[in-house]
Amino acid sequence: MTAATDATLFPQVPGGSAYPAPPSGPDEVLDGLDPEQREVATALHGPVCVLAGAGTGKTRAITHRIAYGVRAGILQPSSVLAVTFTARAAGEMRGRLRQLGATGVQARTFHSAALRQLQFFWPRAVGGELPRLLDRKGPLVAEAAARCRIRLDRNELRDVTGEVEWSKVTQTVPADYPAAVAKAGREAPRDPAEIGQIYAAYEQLKRDRGTIDFEDVLLLTVGVLQDRHDIAEQVRAQYQHFVVDEYQDVSPLQQRLLELWLGDRDSLCVVGDASQTIYSFTGATPDHLLDFRHRHPHATVVKLVRDYRSTPQVVHLANGLLSRARGRAAEHRLELVSQREPDTEPVFTEYADEPAEAEGTARRIRDLIAAGVPASGIAVLFRINAQSEVYEQALADAGVPYQLRGAERFFERPEVREAGVKLRGAARFGGNDTLLDGAAGLPSEVRAVLSDMGWTDRPPAGSGAVRDRWESLAALVRLAEDFARARPTATLADLVTELDERAAAQHAPTVEGVTLASLHAAKGLEWDAVFLVGLTEGMLPIHHARTDEQIEEERRLLYVGITRARRHLALSWSLARSPGGRPSRSASRFLDGLRSGSGGSRYRAAPGGATGGVERGSAVAAPGRSRRTHRSPARCRVCNRTLTDPGEMKLMRCEDCPSELDEALYERLRDWRSGQAAATRQPAYCVFTDKTLMAIAEVVPGSAEELAVIPGVGRRKLDRFGADVLAICAGEEPGAGAAEGRGEGAENSSEK
Question: Given CB 3.0 to 4.6 Å as the disulfide criterion, which of 11, 452, 480, 610 pairs with 335?
Fold first, then answer.
């Protein structure tokens, strides 16, 4: 089932609804972007690296970048290939691009893009038809193990299959598997020599039966592009510009494929966050992201740190967790700055046992739903799937509907298939379908068709199969309503086409129910309320995480969980597994210093905030030229909100925040400015603007250093006017001591 998320194919603009129509021109595409997102959108040439923290609008930034390039005539839609890691993310990207008027851009997963190329070029490169693609490799791995006289239970089969996948994405052949595992410090689920044998037998079985698996798609595409330069050049002639989302998750094999697509060009934009690397067990590594500037010295690097998803309380907790991280990824962490209004503090709860934890969680969820939070806006996240059962039972007992992420796919449900057939028939027969009698408008037509299947305005009481069926149909109704808002002239046939595209991409609509999911499955999603449960030593970090890097990946997994929450966040653990059991468990070490009463010092935000902005040019500045670096986001010195309005940035506070203006000082500064303007025969605002004078009169700087940091002062004006301004602030008359003060100001300025 699919977890709830705000990321739909009908994207919301800040403070408004979905686009009723594509933007009228390229400049309108940039409307609503913050300064850093705008930098991403307008950086269309050369390599670009976007370091994007959780909730900072990275998908918005890169889709607007593509759309701006297309609408400005700089990028040809058919020459752009955007790749990501899930079919759902690719579907979302295509939907956003369509709404922005950038149709024709290819947005696919690595595997989907490679498969299309392989299918097209296989007859020419190899001959004949492409071998059949395996749906699942588990049964064949089990057969390979049996041939090696090795018996695998259900869990071992899953783990060994994972090892085969890891070997292939790291380009490790069966004979080299034992050595590769040892070198990587990887803990094999069985004797590495046995796994190597199973891996070799599995590959032989595939060859015997003329089949390939998911990883072979990438391997074979890489092989074709490496061996056939004519084919590689044809692909490069087709695709001129590349965008890669979630770049911290690329495997060595995917990186090699990307390099072959690029050739010797550098029209590449990558987006990622090393602090969200949680799939290293599959071969993913953040090294490609962290080394991007070394491979592309002239790259533009943009950092997105304005968090639009989570409240300041949630962001503070996430920043605090990462402040204790170690290792290379931690050195490049982004300190987020929340753009939302403050809300409730995260809640830490200790329970006596697991059933008590589950029951307490269910009670709190029921209270949230009663307070108006939709069930689809709530998630319970755990480390491993085996933890879900007790929460399923507790939610059922509390009468709360839920859905398991990773269970049956939405578009494969019988009622959804049946609804698709009925909607397709109604679209075909149009006004001749009696079901549509009296229906006016697309949503009304969909309700009429689905009413024939049992959909009603009100959900049935209780849970179970009847409620599940109703939820599926209700999700289709909501999707039709969203679709009609985004495209007012859409017909039933247009909706059927949309459903077909979503089914192909497995981009399901929201189902009304609390989501139960593992932390890994929650990546890329978000909810109003998130419950992180089972946070004990041995579970998070998991007991088999032993090396420093493995421990740090577990910390990043918790970070991903925390940053899924928009408003409400609860973290809990239990001391025993069952009622009456020995309370031998302890809270996760990752919570130390984050909750009151825990060990270690509490996290405090770094002075000056996060290091967002943009860097251009070479990693090593050319002689005589300094590298251009944008400042961190300005923040209000009263409420700490990030400022984007130029006037507010000069005041260093929000317009409506309390002012500590010294009005008498402000008037003296205005009088002095008038004299300076008359003496130099220039407008008064060329000396200092009113906003800058107001900021000076509010701060009342006592030194050149304090004056220099006020926006609108700058080095040149500090050298020229600093001594006079400081004298006025000190209650003295500018003049005799001005020359001495001017020299001091210049000296201090040069030090800066």
Answer: 610
* Proportion of the chain above pLDDT 90, given as a percent: 39
User: Which tokens hold the place of 322?
Assistant: 């990462």
pLDDT tens digits, 630-675: 444 556 766 666 655 556 666 777 776 777 788 889 899 999 998 8
3-state secondary structure of 196: helix
Q: Answer yes or no: are the C-beta atoms of 339 and 642 closer than 8 Å.
A: yes
Beta strand residue intervals within 217-259, DSSP E: 241-244
Tell me: the pLDDT tens digits for 491-511?
888 888 888 877 765 565 666
pLDDT digits (tens, 9 = 90+) for 173-210: 999 999 998 888 787 888 999 999 999 999 999 999 99
Peptide bond into 541 cis (omega under 30): yes
> Between helices 138-147 and 154-169, what is the axis angle to 10°?
100
Whether 358 contacts 327, CB under 8 Å: no
Give every strand in the sheet of 80-84, ordered side by side: 106-109, 80-84, 241-244, 268-272, 48-52, 300-304, 613-615
Closest CA to 728 of 659, 680, 661, 669: 669
Q: What is the pTM of this model?
A: 0.67
Reply yes or no on whether the pLDDT at 623 is more than 50. no
Full 3-state SS string of 270-303: EEECHHHCCCHHHCCCCHHHHCHHHHCCCCEEEE
- Both structure tokens of 19: 């686009």
Q: Which of 9, 1, 7, 3 is nearest to 494 (CA)?
A: 9
Residue 7 has pLDDT above 60, yes or no: no
SS3 130: coil
Looking at residue 23, the DSSP 8-state letter turns out to be: -
CB-neighbour burial class of residue 354 (10 A; exposed 0-12, middle 13-18, buried 19+) = buried
Dist CA 674 CA 213 (whole Å): 77
Residue 633's alpha-carbon distances to 139, 572, 649, 654, in angstroms, are 53, 34, 9, 14
Asked if 39 and 291 touch (Cβ cutoff 8 Å), the reply is no
Rounded CA-CA distance 232/225 in Å is 5
pLDDT attached to residue 649: 67
Beta strands in 282-425 (DSSP E): 300-304, 306-307, 337-338, 347-353, 378-382, 402-404
Query: How far apart, in whole angstroms, are the C-alpha atoms of residue 600 and residue 314?
Result: 20
Q: What are phi and psi of 221, to 5 degrees?
A: -65, -45
Q: How many helices (H) and strands (E) does the chain have?
A: 29, 17
